[in-house]
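Sequence in, structure out. First:
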Amino acid sequence: MGQTVRDVMTPNPLTVKATATIVEAAKKMKEADIGPVLVLEKDKVCGIVTDRDIAIRAVAEGRNPAEVKVADICSRDLVVLAPDASIDEAVKLMEKKAVRRLPVVDKGKPVGIVALGDLAEHRDPKSALGKISQAAPNN
């Protein structure tokens, strides 16, 4: 049997409530040294917000970060996967939807996140993207 998304995903994804401010989300990102955070409404995944979303959809538009809610800028048209989905399915979804990250959800609850880099590292660790994904982050 082929490997599943569970085998390559980052478990226990960082989450933030949709009602949180983008400052709260950015602080979580900084503490965890990550870019994406899953957005929750009533404990169910309803979106994803990235550091780039904060920069482009709020800060660059001159909006007050202390007042902007995550729900106002997050991406809500989500494509999610079950943890037992195949890696091939994840690759096809990323390609079809032109996304770099897919939330992994089990019964509506976030259990992981799989990124393009995770798949590259798994499929071809010697590729440029695979090597970049394996490298330590530069802070």
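Second:
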Amino acid sequence: MFLLAGLALWCVPRSRYRGFLVFVSIALALTAVRRLNNALVAWTDLIDLLAYSAMAKYLWIPTVAAWALAWNRWHPRPSRIIDAAALAIMAAGIAATATHAAGVLHASRLASIALFVVIGARMARGGAMRALALITLALIVVSFFGGELLDPIGVPGIWFPFGIGVSRTQYLYAAFIPLLAFLIVRTLDAGTAQVVGTLRQSNASTKM
């Protein structure tokens, strides 16, 4: 994920999806830190259980907000209302976690899911590579909200291939990461296509 964040930043000057790529790099870095947190506490003594617990409780909240801000910018016209809603939900989630308000925290998670549904609906109506973008969006949303979206339909939270436990989230990331990498690289083609289209329109206007 850190490498993918670096790829996104490398593509920023070469793509018209600059806002998307900037926020995707932030979201990827935050997501990577969340996963790295698990490895560090399991395999090393670099962080103690209190630090691990604090990161586990709080870090997912700004990470989800970063993904919402990123996908909002896949649409040609990002919505300021969606940005404001993402930040408001983040603030509510942090406050609820700090005050142990379980009901408010649950409501903020449901609100985040609803916000991603709105973002997905807007992406379906406008934006390049809609099918690929929507599948990639769906994978990251399900990875964060598996408890709300997958548990009710009986999808196990952990699988045991060859007797080794692998979390459901890892499988989702295994599908999500290459799709997002492909999408990031394709933003370069999308930017080039827009430039070519603009030049053609300019040439046509000149001839007229």
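Remark: The CA atoms of residues 77 and 138 lie 20 Å apart.
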